[in-house]
Write a structure and sequence with these properties.
about 35% helix; 4-stranded antiparallel β-sheet; 2 domains; 4-stranded mixed β-sheet; single chain; 7 helices; alpha+beta; globular; about 20% strand
Length: about 300
Amino acid sequence: MAEGATTELRKSQLSSPLAKSNNRRVDATHGGFLFNPRIIVFEVSRVYKSIAIFWELAAGAPMGCVHGVSRSHPQHHGLQAGAQMELPDYYRPTFRGLDLTRITSREELDVALFAAKKEYNKFLNERLLVAQRAWLSNTRRRGFDVESADAFSTCPCINHPSHQLEQIETTEKAGIREVSRLLYIYMPRDAARQCQSAQMVDRIPDYMCFMDHDRQRKFLAADISPYSIYTSKSAMVARYHSVGCGSVTENDIAFCIVIAETDWTQHDTSKCLYKRSRFGSVDVLAVAPVLFPPEESSSEETD
């Protein structure tokens, strides 16, 4: 082909509708083919980036995030993964506690709280543990390793392994979990009902919480049931006063919420009470009235 014809061909290539529609700047020609340095640099950089990622994965490098979680995803306690996938959501079943505030008989309250405990044990085995194991299975399928997998698959928990686990204290018999101990948190009626409705202990009045020696704000619980004949309202008030809740009176010991003991609960044997610093969500089994006997007929003793 003649030089003049070659020049005309190249000019027609540069001004073709295809070149214009792609909005590409052509910097040079070589052997009759269009040559775009910017495209070449992009392709080369992409190749080098792929090689770099390959070597990071081969070396087990975290790449700035937890394995399996994007860089913008918060790091989860006790979780590791070998694949770039998102941690599955966990939807914890909710236990709907009973409102027993209309009961006026100790015997009736005893039966009602026994039924609430039985219903809660059923919830733990048939709903909560099932949900925990399903989440754990889904998490493993996505390539995550859960350090607390054994505990989460066998013990009912208040939360899940993206945080430090709070395990509900239970005993096991023939593969069935049952609550080890129920605790009672005493307070006025409205506060107790709010705790039961929200399934949270954040509604405990501030004056019934205290600052412990470790400088953590805590609330008080007891293992004495609200129908016990071995205690009195004044004896319960004395427990609150012993931890610095000096504003608590017998009028505040009117109702209680019922919760299960967890491994985050501390037992203060010197004051015969339980305490914990974690507020937030809990399983409130019931809200119940306080039916302690009159002052002169009571004698302090744990139920």
